[in-house]
C-alpha cells in the first residue's frame, strides 16, 4: 500500500507536463476551427489533428482529477487547478466546462501564473473539499476548492426540484475557490472560460457589479434560475453563471480573468454561482461558508462505522465518493460523474454514465450499509417508488436505468464537435442501454431491500407492492435470454449471472414475504428459487465444474464471482472454489481481472478493453470467502496501491502504466472496494476472535 509521499512520487513520475497554456487550452496547432463570428464550433465543424510530441498528451491522466460534489452538481478539477468538467444544474445536464473531452471546450483555472504542477494535493479529512499546495520559485500558495453546502435555504417557498424530505443541509449552487499566499510572493492567475451546451453555445460576459468584483456569463437560452424536471427537457435552458471575487476581474472575449501579485498572508476568493442564492461577497463570508461545508461532510461521515485499521482512509474516501454521486433532490445515485472517458486509450468504448443504474445503485447501498451509512437507502427506495408509479396504484416494471430526475427515455447520440478525451471518439450523450432487457436488475434491487429491512424485521407497506411486482417480473423472465450485467450489444444469451440474480430475486422475495407475513408467497417463491438454482447448476457449469458466462459456452465471466457473495451456493462448494480459482488464474492480466475475454464474447463492439477494477475487488471478496485470505490480502494491497493520489477510482486500470480508464469516479468500483476491504479486515478479525461476519 502506497503512502501519501509515495503517491506524490508516483504523481511526478507518471505526469508529463500538459502541453497547455495557463488557462488549460491547447496549443494553436490543436485548436478547433471556429467560424468567422467567433461562435463556438457547430457539430459539423472540422477538427484539426492534434500535434503532440510522442509520449505526451495535452489531457491529464484520468486519475489525476479531483472530484467535488454538493449532492446536486459535480465537477472535476485537473492537476493544474482547472475545472475541466462541470454540468449545471445537474450532473447529466449539458456541460459548461468540458476540457476533459476537448481542450477548447471550457475551463476555470485558479493557480500560479505559468505553473502547471502542484507540490501536493489532498482532501480535507472527512470531506470532499480539496486543498492544493503550489510551490513557485518565489513563494507558496494554497488553493482550497469546495462545492458549497449550507443550511436548508428554501424557507419561504418549497423547492421545485426536491422530492425527498428536506435535511438540515442543502446545496448552495456555488463553487468556491479560496486562495492564500502562505510564504513569499506568488503571481496568481484566474481564468474562467465557459463553453455552454457541450461547447455548442458561446459565452458572453458582462460586468454586473459596482466595479470589477462581479461578472456574469450567458448564452442564448440562458435563464437566471434553472429548474429541471420531466416537463423541462435537459438542454432546453442554460444557466447564467455569476463570477464573484475580491479580485479585479477583466473580460477578454469569452474569458473572464484576473491576475494579481500575492505576498505572504494575502487571501482572496473566487466564487462561481448559478442560482439567485447569494454567493460570498467578502473573504470572511467565503471562509465561513467553507467551514460550514466542511462541517456538513464531517457530520455525515461521523455517522459511519469505520474500523480502526490502516485502510480506514480508503473506506472513508470511497464512502464520500458514493455520497457525492447521489442526487439529493430525488435520491438517485449516478454511476459516475462523466461521459465518454474511454475504456480503451483512443478507442470507441465510450459511454455516458451520468444516470442511475438500478443495479449499480443498489449494490452501492451494500457498501454504504456495510459502513453504517444506510440513510441514503431510504431516499433511493423512494426514488424507485417514484419511477415505478403508474399513477393507478399498480407499480410498473423496473427499467435497468433512469435519468437522475426519473426520466425513462435516455436517447443516445454522438457529439461530433468534441474531439474526445485524448482523441477517443465518439463522445456519446444519453445511453442506448436504457431499454435493454437485463434480468439481474430485480435480484439486485430485492437483495438491497432485504439487506436494508431485515434488521428492522418489517417491510414498509408502501414498498411491498413494488417488491411483489419485481419478483413477478423475475418469475416471468428468468427462462428467457437477455443482455446480461455487461449490457452486451450482441445477441441475447442465457447469461449465468442473470439466472443467478433471478434466483436472488426469488430467494430474497421469499424472505421479505416472511417478514411481511405473506407465507403463501414465501412458499411459492422459495420453490421457484430452487427451480432456478437447479437449472443454473445443470446448464451453467462446464465439464470441470466451473460456472460459465452463459449456457452455450465454456467461456469465463467475472460476474460469476458474485455467486458466493450473494450466497447462491456456500463458499465451500467445490464448484464455487473451482470457479473463483479459474477466474483468478485464467481471466486476469498481470493479476487484475477482465470482465470477459472480448474474443470469446459477442458484445457487439470492436477493440480491446482494460481490466475492470470492480471485478478485481470482487475477486478479493471471493478469495476471502473460499478461505484464500493471504492471496486476497495481497491482491487487495495491490489494488489499493493503484488508487489515485486522492484515493479515487475510474472503471478500469491499465496494468502496464497503472493509469485509470473509463468514467470517473466510478460508483461500482468504490462499492466493491468497500466490500473487499471489509471482507479482508473481518477475516483477519476472525483469525483473532473466531467469528467471521460476511461483509454483506
Reported for the largest beta sheet, the result is: 15 strands, antiparallel
The global form is globular
Distance between the termini: 24 Å
The radius of gyration is 25 Å
Question: β content, as a range?
Answer: 15-25%
Q: Average pLDDT value?
A: 86
Distinct helical segment count: 15
Q: How is this fold's topology laid out?
A:
Blueprint: H1 4-14, E1 66-69, E2 74-77, E3 82-87, E4 95-97, E5 107-112, E6 120-123, E7 130-135, E8 139-151, E9 169-193, H2 196-199, E10 201-202, E11 204-207, E12 214-218, E13 222-223, E14 238-239, E15 241-245, E16 250-252, E17 255-263, E18 267-273, H3 283-302, H4 312-324, E19 326-327, E20 332-333, E21 356-357, H5 358-370, H6 375-388, E22 401-402, E23 413-414, E24 428-429, H7 441-453, H8 464-477, H9 496-515, H10 519-539, H11 562-565, H12 574-586, E25 588-589, E26 592-593, E27 611-612, H13 613-625, H14 629-641, E28 652-653, E29 660-661, H15 667-689
Helix pairs in contact: 4-15, 5-6, 5-7, 5-15, 7-8, 7-9, 8-9, 9-10, 13-14, 13-15, 14-15
Amino acid at each position: 500500500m502506497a503512502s501519501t509521499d509515495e503517491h506524490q512520487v508516483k504523481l511526478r513520475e507518471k505526469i508529463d507536463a500538459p502541453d497547455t497554456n495557463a488557462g488549460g487550452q491547447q496549443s494553436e496547432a490543436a485548436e478547433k476551427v471556429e467560424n468567422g463570428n467567433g461562435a463556438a464550433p457547430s457539430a459539423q465543424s472540422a477538427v484539426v489533428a492534434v500535434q503532440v510530441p510522442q509520449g505526451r498528451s495535452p489531457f491529464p491522466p484520468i486519475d489525476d482529477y479531483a472530484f467535488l460534489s454538493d449532492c446536486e452538481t459535480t465537477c472535476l478539477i485537473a492537476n493544474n487547478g482547472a475545472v475541466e468538467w462541470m454540468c449545471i444544474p445537474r450532473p447529466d445536464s449539458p456541460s459548461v466546462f468540458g476540457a476533459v473531452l476537448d481542450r477548447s471546450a471550457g475551463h476555470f483555472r485558479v493557480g500560479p501564473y505559468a505553473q502547471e504542477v502542484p507540490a501536493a494535493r489532498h482532501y480535507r479529512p472527512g470531506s470532499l473539499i480539496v486543498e492544493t499546495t503550489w510551490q513557485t520559485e518565489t513563494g507558496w500558495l494554497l488553493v482550497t476548492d469546495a462545492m458549497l453546502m449550507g443550511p436548508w435555504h428554501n424557507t419561504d417557498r418549497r423547492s421545485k426540484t426536491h422530492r425527498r424530505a428536506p435535511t438540515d443541509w442543502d446545496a448552495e449552487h456555488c463553487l468556491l475557490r479560496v486562495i492564500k499566499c502562505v510564504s513569499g510572493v506568488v503571481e496568481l492567475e484566474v481564468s474562467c472560460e465557459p463553453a455552454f451546451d457541450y461547447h455548442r453555445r458561446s459565452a458572453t460576459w458582462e460586468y454586473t457589479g459596482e466595479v470589477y468584483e462581479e461578472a456574469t456569463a450567458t448564452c442564448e437560452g440562458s435563464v437566471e434560475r434553472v429548474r429541471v424536471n420531466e416537463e423541462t427537457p435537459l438542454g432546453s435552458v442554460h444557466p447564467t453563471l455569476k463570477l464573484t471575487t475580491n479580485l479585479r476581474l477583466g473580460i477578454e472575449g469569452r474569458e473572464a480573468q484576473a491576475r494579481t501579485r500575492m505576498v505572504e498572508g494575502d487571501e482572496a476568493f473566487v466564487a462561481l454561482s448559478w442560482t439567485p442564492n447569494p454567493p460570498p461577497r467578502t473573504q470572511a463570508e467565503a471562509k465561513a461558508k467553507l467551514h460550514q461545508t466542511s462541517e456538513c461532510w464531517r457530520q455525515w461521515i461521523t455517522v459511519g462505522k469505520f474500523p480502526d485499521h490502516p485502510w480506514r482512509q480508503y473506506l472513508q474516501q470511497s464512502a464520500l465518493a458514493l455520497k457525492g454521486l447521489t442526487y439529493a433532490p430525488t435520491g438517485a445515485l449516478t454511476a459516475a460523474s462523466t461521459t465518454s472517458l474511454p475504456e480503451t486509450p483512443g478507442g470507441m468504448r465510450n459511454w455516458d454514465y451520468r444516470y442511475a443504474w438500478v443495479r449499480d445503485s443498489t449494490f452501492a447501498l451494500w457498501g454504504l450499509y456495510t459502513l453504517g451509512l444506510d440513510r441514503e437507502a431510504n431516499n433511493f427506495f423512494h426514488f424507485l417508488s417514484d419511477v415505478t408509479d403508474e399513477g393507478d396504484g399498480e407499480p410498473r416494471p423496473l427499467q435497468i436505468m433512469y435519468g437522475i430526475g426519473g426520466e425513462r427515455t435516455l436517447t443516445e447520440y454522438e457529439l461530433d464537435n468534441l474531439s474526445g478525451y485524448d482523441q477517443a471518439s465518439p463522445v456519446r450523450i444519453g445511453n442506448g442501454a436504457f431499454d435493454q432487457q437485463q434480468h439481474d436488475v430485480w435480484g439486485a434491487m430485492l437483495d438491497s431491500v432485504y439487506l436494508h429491512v431485515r434488521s428492522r424485521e418489517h417491510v414498509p407497506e408502501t414498498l411491498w407492492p413494488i417488491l411483489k411486482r419485481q419478483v413477478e417480473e423475475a418469475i416471468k423472465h428468468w427462462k428467457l435470454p437477455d443482455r446480461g450485467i455487461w449490457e452486451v450489444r450482441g445477441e441475447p444469451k442465457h447469461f449465468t449471472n442473470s439466472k443467478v440474480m433471478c434466483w436472488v430475486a426469488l430467494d430474497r422475495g421469499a424472505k421479505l414475504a416472511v417478514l411481511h407475513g405473506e407465507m403463501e408467497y414465501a412458499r411459492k417463491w422459495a420453490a421457484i428459487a430452487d427451480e432456478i438454482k437447479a437449472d443454473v447448476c445443470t446448464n451453467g457449469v462446464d465439464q470441470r465444474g466451473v460456472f460459465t458466462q452463459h449456457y452455450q459456452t465454456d467461456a469465463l465471466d467475472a460476474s460469476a464471482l458474485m455467486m458466493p457473495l450473494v450466497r447462491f451456493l456456500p463458499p465451500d462448494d467445490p464448484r464455487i472454489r473451482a470457479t473463483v480459482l479459474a477466474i483468478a488464474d485464467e481471466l486476469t492480466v498481470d493479476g487484475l481481472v477482465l470482465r470477459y475475454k472480448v474474443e470469446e464474447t459477442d458484445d457487439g463492439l470492436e477493440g480491446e478493453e482494460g481490466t475492470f477494477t470492480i471485478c478485481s475487488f470482487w475477486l478479493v471478496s471471493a478469495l476471502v470467502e473460499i478461505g484464500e485470505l493471504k492471496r486476497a490480502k495481497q491482491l487487495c494491497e495491490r489494488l489499493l496501491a493503484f488508487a489515485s493520489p486522492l484515493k479515487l477510482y475510474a472503471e478500469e486500470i491499465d496494468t502496464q502504466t497503472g493509469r485509470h480508464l473509463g468514467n470517473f469516479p466510478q460508483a461500482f468500483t468504490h462499492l466493491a472496494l468497500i466490500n473487499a476491504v471489509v471482507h479482508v479486515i473481518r477475516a483477519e478479525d476472525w483469525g483473532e476472535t473466531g467469528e467471521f461476519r460476511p461483509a454483506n
